[in-house]
Amino acid sequence: MACVLALAGRLARQQPGVVTVGTLRAQGVNFVVLATAAAVILALVNFLPALSLGPIADGLL
């Protein structure tokens, strides 16, 4: 817990970085689409093995 609080304090003291052409702002449609797509892909990676192996295991019984 102390390490997490120390890290949070250190990140809070940081100065904002320079905004360039390659900077992805945390607002707007692009950010929402990318964050949602990442969440959906991670969910699929978690459940796809169980969904694909379930029918195979059922056929073996």
Task: Give a topology summary.
Elements: H1 2-13, H2 29-60
Brief account:
With 61 residues, the protein is mainly alpha-helical. Helices cover 72% and strands 0% of the residues. The chain has a domain at 27-61.
Contiguous runs where pLDDT drops below 50 for at least 5 residues: none
Shape: elongated
Determine the mean pLDDT: 88
By DSSP (H or I, 4+ residues per run), the number of helices equals 2
Computed Rg: 20 Å
> Number of DSSP strands?
0
Helix content: over 70%
What share of residues are in beta strands? under 5%
Largest sheet: none
Which secondary-structure class do the elements indicate? mainly alpha
Separation, N- and C-terminal Cα atoms: 47 Å
Any overview of this molecule?
The chain is mainly alpha-helical and 61 residues long. The chain has a domain at 27-61. Helix content is 72%, strand content 0%. It contains 2 helices and no strands. It has helices at 2-13, 29-60. The protein starts with a helix and ends with a helix. The mean pLDDT is 88.
Structure characteristics:
mainly alpha; elongated; 61 residues; single chain
